[in-house]
Specification:
about 20% strand; five-stranded mixed β-sheet; single chain; nine-stranded mixed β-sheet; alpha+beta; 14 helices
Length: about 550
C-alpha cells in the first residue's frame, strides 16, 4: 500500500474565508498561513496535496464523510476529540469579543449572557457558547467575515471571532465602526486534524511540522502571515541591534587608537566563540524538541487508543469469568442430557465435540484479553513523557522484552525468523526506562526496514561486558547492509538513505543523543549486501548512581 500522498494526492480541507490562516485570494486560489505550511510539509515529506476550501461547516462534514483526508486548521477541544485525532498544535489562537463602538464593554464570555452573539457556524466558539447554555442567543454565519459585516450593519450585540482574523477582516473591509470589546476571552490550540483512526497520515504531517520547526521554515512562514499582526514584546536581538547602531559613531571616533582596536578585536573573538557554543547548544536542543513533538503526537494517539480499547476489553475481562462459571454449571445438565438421549447439536456442532472446545475457547478469549491489556499498558508507558534526568535502576532485558511486544506486528510482517537471547543475571543500569526503550524501538524498526524479504532473519541479544561493568544489547539483521561511506553519518541529524520511503534521519540521531546521556555508546558494523550489527553498550549500575 502506498504511503499517504505518495500515489494519489492527500485532500486537504480548510476554510475559504478565515484570513490570514486560510482563504481564497482574489484569483480564487488557496492562500494563507495554513496553506503555505501544508505546502512546505508536503515538500519535505515527499507528499502530493490537493486543497479544498469551503465553508467551515462543509469542511467538517467532508472530513467525516471521507471527501477530505485532513483539515489543516482545527481548534482542539475534548468534545471534538470524540470525532477526530489532533496533531501537536502549530499555532495558539486567541479569541476576542468584537462590538460596535459605544457598546457596553465586557471582560469575559460570561458578560455575553442575554446578548445576541454572532459566531462562526460549527466553529470552536459556536461549540463553546452552545455548551455554556447560550445556544438560543447565537446568530450563526458561514464565515467570520460574514459575522463581522453583520455586526457592523447593526445586527446582533457582539461577535466572537479569533483575534487575528477579526483584526484582518476589519482592516481589509474598512469596518471602522467595530472595535475589540474584550481580548483573549478564549485561548485554544490550533493544528491539523484527521478523522479518528487515520494515525498514519497524522503522523506524517506531525513529523513534517517538526522538521519545519527544526530547519527554520516554520518560523519564516509564521512571521510572514501572523507576525505582522501580533503585538510582540521587543526581543533582545532587536535591542542589541539598536544598541550597537548607537555605539557605532563612538567606535568610529575611537578607531584611531591602536590599543582600543586591539582590545576590541580580542573581545569580538571571545564573543564569537561564545556565540558559536550557544548556537551549538541551541542546535542540540532543537533536535530534542523535534522528537518531543513526535512523542506528543504519539501521546495524543495513545490516549485515544487506550480509551477505545480498554473499555470493551474491560467488558471481556469482566464477563468471561462469569461465562466460564455459567458453562461449568450448565455442563452438568448438558452431560446428563447427553448420557440419556445421545449426541445433539450445539451451535450447529455436535455436543460431543463442543463439550471440550467451549472451555478451551473461553480460556483463549481470556488470555487474549489479558494480552490486549498488557500491550496497551506497555504502549502508554512507552509514550509517557519523562524527564531525561529522572533515572532509576533499569533491567535492560525487561525493557527489551517490553519493546518487542510493542513492535511485534512490525516484526512479524518483516521476517519469518526473529530470535532473541537474553543473558541471565544481567546487571542493571542507571537510566530512564522509556528513553532506553525508545532506542531499542528505533534499532529493531531499522532492522525490519533493512530486510529485502521475509526469508531474512533478525536476532536480538543481551550480554554482560567484561568484568560485568557494562551491559551490551545487539541487534543483527540479514538485510541489505550499509555503504562504507554512509557509516560515519548514520547518527547525523536528517541523514537517511530512506528519504523516498518517508525516512527523516531523526531516529538514530535522537537515539545517539539518548545513549550519550546515559554514558553509553552506539556502534555500527555493516557489510553491503550481507547485513548490519548494531551494538548498544551501557555502563552497569553501581550501588548508587554516579554524581
Amino acid at each position: 500500500m502506498d504511503l499517504p500522498g505518495k500515489g494519489t494526492p492527500v485532500i486537504v480541507g480548510g476554510d475559504r474565508d478565515y484570513p490570514p490562516y486560510e482563504f481564497l485570494d482574489m484569483d480564487g486560489r488557496p492562500s494563507g498561513y495554513n496553506v503555505d505550511l501544508t505546502r512546505a510539509i508536503a515538500e519535505v515529506m515527499g507528499m502530493k496535496v490537493e486543497f479544498r476550501l469551503g465553508t467551515w461547516s462543509e469542511m467538517r462534514k467532508a472530513l467525516m464523510d471521507g471527501r477530505v483526508d485532513i483539515l489543516q486548521g482545527m481548534s482542539y477541544s475534548e468534545q471534538r476529540l470524540q470525532e477526530v485525532d489532533f496533531a501537536p498544535p502549530h499555532t495558539i489562537v486567541n479569541h476576542a469579543v468584537f462590538a460596535r463602538k459605544g457598546t457596553r464593554p465586557i471582560r469575559s464570555l460570561d458578560g455575553l449572557a442575554g446578548s445576541k452573539v454572532i459566531v462562526h457556524r460549527s466553529g470552536i466558539m459556536n461549540d463553546t457558547l452552545a455548551a455554556r447554555g447560550n445556544a438560543d442567543n447565537l446568530l450563526l454565519t458561514d464565515t467570520p467575515a460574514d459575522g463581522l459585516r453583520l455586526l457592523a450593519s447593526g445586527q446582533g450585540d457582539y461577535a466572537v471571532v479569533a483575534m487575528l482574523p477579526g483584526i484582518y477582516i476589519i482592516r481589509e473591509n474598512k469596518l471602522d465602526n467595530l472595535t475589540i470589546a474584550a481580548r483573549r476571552v478564549a485561548t485554544v490550540r490550533y493544528g491539523y486534524a484527521v478523522k479518528k483512526g487515520n494515525a498514519e497520515l497524522l503522523a506524517r504531517f506531525s513529523e513534517g511540522l517538526a522538521i519545519l520547526k527544526q530547519t527554520g521554515q516554520y518560523e519564516a512562514i509564521y512571521n510572514k502571515w501572523l507576525g505582522v499582526l501580533e503585538h510582540n514584546p521587543v526581543r533582545w536581538e532587536t535591542v542589541l541591534k539598536y544598541v550597537v547602531a548607537g555605539m557605532l559613531p563612538l567606535l568610529l571616533l575611537l578607531s584611531g587608537t591602536v590599543f582600543w582596536s586591539h582590545t576590541l578585536r580580542k573581545k569580538v573573538a571571545q564573543r564569537t566563540s561564545s556565540l558559536s557554543d550557544a548556537l551549538e547548544e541551541l542546535h542540540n536542543n532543537q533536535q530534542q524538541l523535534v522528537q518531543a513533538d513526535k512523542m506528543a503526537a504519539l501521546g495524543i494517539l495513545v490516549s485515544g487508543v487506550a480509551h477505545e480499547v480498554n473499555n470493551p476489553n474491560g467488558l471481556f475481562l469482566l464477563n468471561i469469568p462469569i461465562l466460564k462459571k455459567a458453562h461449568n454449571d450448565a455442563a452438568r445438565i448438558l452431560d446428563e442430557h447427553f448420557q440419556a438421549n445421545g449426541d445433539f447439536t450445539l451451535g450447529g456442532i455436535s455436543y460431543a465435540r463442543m463439550r471440550g472446545e467451549i472451555p478451551q475457547m473461553l480460556d483463549e478469549m481470556q488470555d487474549g484479553a489479558l494480552k490486549i491489556k498488557r500491550i496497551v499498558n506497555d504502549l502508554k508507558d512507552f509514550s509517557r513523557p519523562g524527564d531525561a534526568a529522572d533515572k532509576e535502576l533499569v533491567d535492560v532485558n525487561a525493557a527489551a522484552e517490553k519493546t518487542l511486544r510493542l513492535v511485534d506486528t512490525t516484526i512479524r510482517k518483516a521476517t519469518d525468523t526473529f530470535t532473541t537471547h537474553f543473558a541471565p543475571d544481567l546487571p542493571k543500569v542507571w537510566g530512564n526506562s522509556q528513553r532506553i526503550e525508545q532506542v531499542v524501538v528505533n534499532l529493531v524498526l531499522n532492522a525490519c526496514q533493512a530486510l529485502p524479504g521475509r526469508d531474512r532473519a533478525i536476532a536480538l541479544s543481551t550480554s554482560a561486558g567484561q568484568d560485568a561493568d557494562t551491559v551490551v544489547l545487539r541487534v543483527h539483521d540479514e538485510g541489505t547492509g550499509i555503504l562504507p561511506e554512509h557509516l560515519p553519518h548514520l547518527t547525523d541529524p536528517f541523514f537517511t538513505t530512506k528519504r523516498g520511503s518517508g525516512g527523516t534521519g531523526l531516529g538514530l540521531s535522537v537515539s545517539a543523543g539518548i545513549v550519550k546521556e546515559h554514558g553509553g555508546s552506539l556502534v555500527f558494523d555493516s557489510t553491503k549486501g550481507t547485513g548490519t550489527t548494531v551494538t548498544l553498550t551501557l555502563p552497569a549500575a553501581r550501588k548508587e548512581p554516579a554524581a
